[in-house]
Amino acid sequence: MKRNLLQCMARVLLLPVALMFICGALVSAHAEYSGPKVRFRLAHPCPPGHHTSLAFEKFAELVAQKSKNKIKVHVFPNAVLGSDVVMLKGALTGGLEMAVSSSPNLTWVVPSLMVFDLPYITSVNYQKKLYEALDNGELGRYFKGKFNEVGLEPIMYCEYGYRDFFSVKKPIRSVGDLAGIQVRTTASAVEVEVAKALGMKPKPLAWGETYTALKEGIVEGEGNTFSFLLDAEHEDILKYAFASRHNYSMQILSANKKWWEELDPQVRSIIREAAAEALKYQREVLAPQSEEEAVKRFMADGLEVSKPSEAELEELKRKTRPVWNLFSDTLSQELIDLVVATQQ
């Protein structure tokens, strides 16, 4: 009861901020759209209620609002159209107009996104600078070029968050406790090597297979954010967490490039405008609120959360730093410098 009361109070306090974003979305900088009706699909892997899901719902709402319902986005959440790989293949071939995939799972198409999997290359302390570089800076132009090369157009770099380690049975109270855990990873080669550097046993699995794998003991742990795991209802099987915050992830919305370029310029403008507003709302309101509430919920449900000391944080960085060198052939120094420049 007390927990529910606290959650309600938090939402009430955030309501004026949320309303500010929603009301701001009502103001449009472009002329009223007078072209033909447009319908397209957006598929993503995120569970209902997660802040990324809410961001895509807000995006669809704003597109309809700004076009007087002449442009409609049909949103398919929770991987109902298939895994990240399946949805992304649809966007690549044109069978699907827009698809969302986590940045680690996108690395098989855009390998340079592995830069964000490098341990501790970014920090939560510099998020605003990273956002600006992605949305309006040279870093964003770099990735737009890489997406375009494979036939995709990046639309939204949604906040996903910093990953921590979780375990279903082995206590994780120190860096050394991570050793030996069979951990689920994404398809990212960097993520696999980070797990190895910490003495863990990585097993890449599609997200849709993860809950069953944890339940059946195929894997013993996973790396993810509190908010995503809560909305995916993993709280009933996870027992321990280590707040390592070892790498940063995004849920990236991209469109089939050929389909995108054939759209009326005004349609593209409306989509871009709606995406920017939904993204701002998600990053500044939804994501922080969601993660904070998720940590409290997990702890109330009995999850033991250990936070590394400054010395342990330095140990994590020291043990995982050699991973950077393993990908020097894949990740250019130019790209690494662009990301590092956002952390100053």
UniProtKB/TrEMBL annotation:
Name of a matching Pfam family: DctP
Keyword terms: Receptor, Signal, Transport
Top-level division of the source organism's lineage: Bacteria
InterPro entries per record: DctP_fam, TRAP_DctP, TRAP_DctP_sf
Family: Belongs to the bacterial solute-binding protein 7 family.
Identification of the protein by name: DctP family TRAP transporter solute receptor
NCBIfam families in the cross-refs: dctP, TRAP_S1
Species in which this protein is naturally found: Bilophila wadsworthia (strain 3_1_6)
GO cellular component: outer membrane-bounded periplasmic space
